[in-house]
Design brief:
Blueprint lengths: L2 E5 H17 L3 E5 L7 H8 L5 E4 L2 H10 L4 E4 L8 H7 L2 E4 L2 H13 L4 E6 L14 H8 L5 E7 L12 H18 L5 E3 L6 H5 L9 E4 L1 H5 L1 E2 L4 E2 L8 E14 L25 E7 L11 E3 L8 E5 L4 E6 L10 E6 L1 H8 L5 E5 L1
Length: 360
């Protein structure tokens, strides 16, 4: 069985690196754990770091977090589905909201459960995913402030999640100004301007972050050390906290070109014949992982720089790798290792067919 490993020391290093930076700038932050898909052994590793705030997009994951660490502040990071409102009030201390009718229902449920539910109102800043339009904001807040059982603790925005719109200093200044308008209009002091996600960190490192941004939600930068502006690893951070180990279950020297009448495969792909490869052979390995677990484009082969290895493709449960002349003398039962891109790790973590382990 393929195994996904998490390296504890590397995770701790990345967390401490980010925590130090945020503390130096008086910024509150929480860890986004939706990547972990509620995997308890990995959630416990995150909580052991001393995390005080966890963000997730699944109520079942927040429930698992509350069962392990009831004092950690849990944040539901998308607008609440109406059918899930009782569970959101029970397991999420905070939620991101954009719909007035939904917030009214949260208010009613909070009163039933004798709770004060905190919300962050998300504002549309150009990426066109969730968010209240700016010209509707004052009227929106006026109605929300009237609701019992609801405490507005922030306003926020998302970037780069749908259309790839990147955060800029000007956009974040605009977000900060919205807070100032609301504070002045209603004689309030909203604690958080939550404009920071992993994609915003480069602005912080480059001293371009407006002072009004005082809250971050971080997942990808923590788990992958990735600078989303440059696609490079942040200096001083690890990009290989996760490692996928796969076993070779077949290894045979085969022709490099298929033979017979060709049609689309089950994934809808058509193979293009390269006539120059007819008559040539190569060693091919089949690995014990497939499309059901991960899209091959999110796999990053580890330590293959000096070998003739390449990923050919995958079916539902098997991945095919070209070994060339197999100069490394791989054999059935040997292990090939991969690092993962974010969406690849998300798929693997959501697969019940992949074993998960912590490397101490």
């Amino acid at each position: 069985m393929a195994v996904l490993k998490l390296y504890r020391d590397k995770l701790k290093h990345n967390y401490n690196h980010l925590d130090k930076v945020f503390k130096e700038h008086n910024i509150d932050w929480g860890v986004v754990t939706k990547l972990l898909c509620g995997e308890e052994i990995f959630l416990k590793e995150v909580l052991a770091l001393g995390v005080r705030e966890i963000h997730d997009s699944r109520v079942t994951n927040l429930k698992a977090i509350k069962n392990v660490a009831p004092d950690v502040q849990t944040v539901y990071i998308k607008p609440s589905p109406k059918k899930s409102i009782p569970d959101i009030i029970q397991y999420a201390d905070v939620s991101f909201e954009t719909e007035l009718d939904t917030i009214r229902m949260l208010s009613e449920e909070a009163l039933r459960q004798n709770k004060i539910h905190k919300i962050i109102i998300m504002i549309e800043m150009g990426d066109l995913r969730e968010g209240v339009m700016g010209d509707e904001l004052v009227n929106f807040y006026a109605k929300v402030f009237e609701l019992p059982g609801i405490s507005v603790i922030g306003l926020g925005a998302n970037f780069n999640c749908l259309h790839g719109v990147m955060p800029t200093r000007d956009k974040l200044i605009q977000l900060s100004l919205y807070k100032q308008i609301i504070d002045a209009k209603f004689d309030k002091e909203i604690p958080w301007v939550s404009g920071g996600t992993s994609v915003t960190i480069p602005l912080l490192f480059n001293h371009q972050l407006p002072g009004g941004i005082n809250h971050f939600r971080i997942g990808e930068a923590l788990f992958f050390g990735l600078n989303l502006f440059t696609s490079e690893t942040f200096e001083g951070m690890h990009d290989d906290i996760f490692e996928l180990e796969t076993e070779i279950i077949e290894l045979t020297e085969k022709p490099m070109m298929p033979s017979g009448m060709l049609a689309e495969n089950p994934s809808g792909e058509s193979f293009e014949v390269d006539e120059s490869l007819f008559g040539k052979t190569s060693h091919r390995a089949i690995l014990d992982v497939g499309l059901l677990d991960i899209n091959p484009k999110f796999l990053i082969p580890k330590n293959w720089e000096h070998e003739q290895l390449s990923v050919i493709g995958a079916s539902s449960d098997m991945l095919v790798v070209e070994l060339g002349e197999n100069t490394q003398q791989y054999k059935v039962g040997d292990i090939l290792r991969f690092s993962l891109r974010y969406m690849g790790a998300l798929s693997i973590l959501n697969s019940r067919y992949i074993s998960k382990e912590v490397v101490v």
